[in-house]
Structures are given as structure tokens and as C-alpha cells.
Amino acid sequence: MKRLSALIFSTLILLSNSTLFAQETEEKVAPLDGGTIENQFDYIYSTSNNFQEYKVVKLTNLDKLKGNVLDSLVAKREEAEALKVDIRAQKDSISTLNADLQTSLEEKQEALDAKDNFTFFGIGIHKAVYSSIMWLLVGVLAVALGFFSFQYSRSFRKIKKAEKDLLDVQEEFDQHRKNTLERERKMKRELIDAQMGKK
Length: 199
Hints:
Layout: H1 2-28, H2 37-47, E1 49-51, E2 54-56, H3 59-116, E3 117-120, E4 123-126, H4 127-198
Antiparallel strand pairs: 1-2, 3-4
């Protein structure tokens, strides 16, 4: 019986030593040096001992986990700051691009206005307004040309009629003068004949 109890005792010692050895080897390759925070918490939970209803955690593991968590938080903060810097840079870039776009749109509008406008005697005029004014001017000139052409042809007809009337009157006048001269000569002859007949 002593042998059996010695065998059980030695088996228990071997099992406890192997468990301790396994825990030590697990601790040596512990995921506390790498892996995610969740895996590290799982590792701490699995390697801790039970004391009544509490878990007993090794202080070195807890310190290591705390350091890892703080390092992760610092890394995440740095990453967040880098992202904020990137976001600020992108916002500045977007603002610059928006300003460039606004400038380009204004230049485009100025180019379109310059294409559609020009200066005439120092006055800026839109091409459509200038075209309307020119067509109105052409219309007024066409009406004036028609009016003056009509007046000219009417005056020309009056002048031709007046010239014809003048020629007729001159012919009449010449005829009348000839008749008058002839009568005057006739009367002078008669007067001369009458004076000679008295003598």
C-alpha cells in the first residue's frame, strides 16, 4: 500500500511539474509580445489561476499587458493624429482646388464675356446689342434711301416737267417775240409809208 500511495504521490508530482513546465513554456512563447490586445487578454485569462471565485493574475503579465495596451493606444493616437494631419492636408488641397476651380470659372466667364463683348468708342457693347443697333441703322438708312429716292424721282419728274414747260414757254415767247417784231416792222413800214404818203 505504501508503494501505491508513493506511486500516486509521484504521479501527482510529475503531473504538477509537467503542468508548471507547460505553463512556463507557454509563458516563454506568450503572445504578450505580439498579437492583438484581445488575444493578449485571452492569454492572461487562460494562464491565470483560480482563487475561490477570483482569478489570480501574475503581476508581470498584467504589467506587460498594460504596457502593450498603452503602446497600442499611443500608436492609435499617433495614427489618429497622422490621419488628422492627412485630413487637414486634404481639406487644404480641396480648398485650393475649389479656389482654382472658382478662378477658372471666373476666367471662363470673362473669356465668354470678352468673346461676346467688344468696345466701340470706349463703350463696352454686347455683340447682340451691337448687331441689333447695326441692323436698326441699316433699316433706318434703307428707309431714308427709299424716301430720298422717292423724293429725288418726284423732284426729277417735276424738274423735267418744268424744263418742258420752260421750253414750251420759251418757244411761245420766241414765237410771240417774232410775231411782235413782225408786227412792229409792219407797223413801222406802215408808219413810214403813211409818212411818205403825206409828203
